[in-house]
Amino acid sequence: MPVEPAAPFTAPASTVWQDQAKHCPICSAELADSEVGGRARRRCARCAFVLYSNPACAAAGVVLNERGEVLLVRRAIEPFRGFWALPAGYQEIDEEPAATVVREVLEEAGVHIEVHGLLDLLFVCDDPRKPANVAVFLCRSLGGEPRPGEEESEAAWFPLDRLPAEIGFDNYPRILGRLRESAGYPESPWSRLRRLLDRAQRREAP
Questions:
Q1: CA 89 from centre of chain
Q2: Is 26 helix (H, G, I), strand (E, B) or coil?
Q3: Phi and psi angles of residue 148, each rounded to the nearest 5 degrees, phi first
Q4: Exposed, middle or buried: residue 17 (CB in 10 Å: 0-12, 13-18, 19+)?
Q5: Quick check: is 10 in a domain?
């Protein structure tokens, strides 16, 4: 039975904190809107510091076990409280993206994983907290029984053909639904490039 995309979380319109800042973090002078790089940004009139508004960096894990089931967590906080989602979270300042997903899966679901590679890089612009670039990694379970973390109410394995109905964050149409289709994810650019390099080397071989 097809899984319907989740209804979006409804929250008051919000902006990132940089758009509301009033004083320069360098010299404490007032910030004012000014055109920088073709768009309005908050800039200091005294020291010319520009307060840029940039997306956050996050990582999500598509974790599969030996039965081909995918690991999901049920969220206990907004946004999408009560909905199932892939384990995911924001990257720390000193973390590699792959290390972020290892940490987040363990924190949110209690499962140790091995990262097999980058599956996708998604720009999520409609998260009510802040926009983010989300690195989606394909991972393999190394062990541990699923258990929910502090911000989750459940953690469980699901066959790809029997996913729960309520899935948040566009995880189904942008990730999980594609995994269920044979042509859901294209061949990696590196695989295509490797074939081109191999053919070139064979032509040059004596």
A1: 7
A2: coil
A3: -75, 150
A4: exposed
A5: no
Distance CA 13, CA 149 (A): 29
* Residue 94 DSSP SS3: coil
Same domain, 43 and 142: no
Question: What is the amino acid identity at position 202?
Answer: R
Range of the domain at 82: 56-179
Residue 186 DSSP one-character state: P
Do 71 and 131 lie in one domain? The reply is: yes
> Which residues of the chain register pLDDT less than 50?
1-2, 4-14
Phi, psi of 110 (to 5 degrees): 75, 20
**Tens digits of per-residue pLDDT, 31-86?**
999 999 999 999 999 999 999 989 999 999 999 999 999 999 999 999 999 999 99
For 159, other C-beta atoms within 10 Å of its C-beta total 10
CA 139 to chain centre: 14
pTM of the complete model beyond 0.85: no
**What backbone torsions phi and psi does residue 47 show, to the nearest 5 degrees?**
-105, 0
- Does residue 80 share a domain with residue 154? yes
Which residues have CB under 8 Å from 158's CB, separation 6+? 69, 70, 72, 84, 164
Which positions are annotated as active-site residues? 154
